[in-house]
Amino acid sequence: MTETAEAIATGPAAVPQDRTRYLTASGVALWGAQIGQVAVPLTAVTVLHTGAAGTSLLRTALTLPFVILGLPVGAWLDRVRRRPVMIGADLVRAAALVTVPVAAWCGRLTMPHLLAVVVVQGVATVFFDLGTQSLVKDLAPGALLARTNARLATVSQAAVIAGPPLAGWAAGLLSAPTVLLVMAAGYLWSAGWLSTLTTREHPAGGGARPRLLQQIGEGVAFVARQPVLRTVVIAGSMVNIGIAGVMTLLPVLALTELGWSEGTLGLFLGAGGIGGLTGAVSAVRLAGKLGAGRAVLLVGIAAAPLAIAIPLLGRPVPGPLAAVGWALVMLKVGFDSVLMMTFRQQVTPAGLMARVNGTMRVLFTGAVALGSAAAGALAAAGGVRWALGASAACLACVWIPIALSPVRRMTTLGTTP
Fold first, then answer.
1. Does a structural domain hold residue 327?
2. Would you list the DSSP string of 118-156?
3. What digits encode the pLDDT tens for the residues 271-280?
4. Is the pTM for the entire model greater than 0.70?
């Protein structure tokens, strides 16, 4: 790992322009994804008139490819150059999305069609996300890693702020399927920026390679025995279960029970983006003052329990007050998106990076699938608000595994307990 880092530091990967291009490409793709996070369920609700069961099915279909493909794709990506794979994934995602508005304009859009597009999106995103999480370590060696993660998280949270309001406003002005064209354009723009990178990548060395199953097993075993990674998995899975449930059910609650417009829902979600951006921007500085592990724990204790406002939205908690609570919960998520990602990259050897990313994405995305599927089932059994309560409880308790783990004793970014 040291030799690789030294080679990167003295080679073309240390050129600042490459990091800027990478952040631009990833950021544009994230903007498209955030717009789609709102536009796809709005398409299902407004065009196909589906309810909680339909939105739950769509979100589950998006996440299943990670559960099925994450491990083998992660192992395969340790053997190849990631940039061409990421470009291809962007092009596939754009092509699939374009078919939705075309079908809607022709009056031919169906739930199976929308599900098929979502599955294609999920498969392509497996390759893109695991590639980009591995490529960043080549682009940002040593002390640059935390700063690059912070900038990427800032771009991500900026997309969370502006993407949902923009999607909601545009869906009301035009139509939800039309908004998906913006998402497709974002993927094309991302592919264009990725094609300009000149970074020399460092996949696993040549020579005799172990079998794919053996490599997968090495990645899984490393995550299982590494205490920092175990904690990241538990806390991240709780966040994903909670957010998946909220994002699955909130459009149904807001549009059907509360009578909100798409634009109002977008503004509510945008408030969460403001909190997430604040958390991402402040993460490195606050970690330097309090200690990285202590900062993660204290922010979680202060902000995560406010998730209980979500199932009480509109009755009895007013919308603006619930939006403040959601913003503070997302502040915790944005804060962790920088520090927990940096912890995980620092404790993982370069030769295991894609496999560890694949293992963790399988677990994280399995949590998303569980959260969305459970939300739909609970909503059918006990109502939307009860299901939102269960999702909010996962978010409210996310600080507990941090408090019980060695992560809380980490002092600086770069020092493991």
1. yes
2. HHHHHHHHHHHHHHHHHHHHHHS-TTHHHHHHHHHHHHH
3. 887 888 788 7
4. no
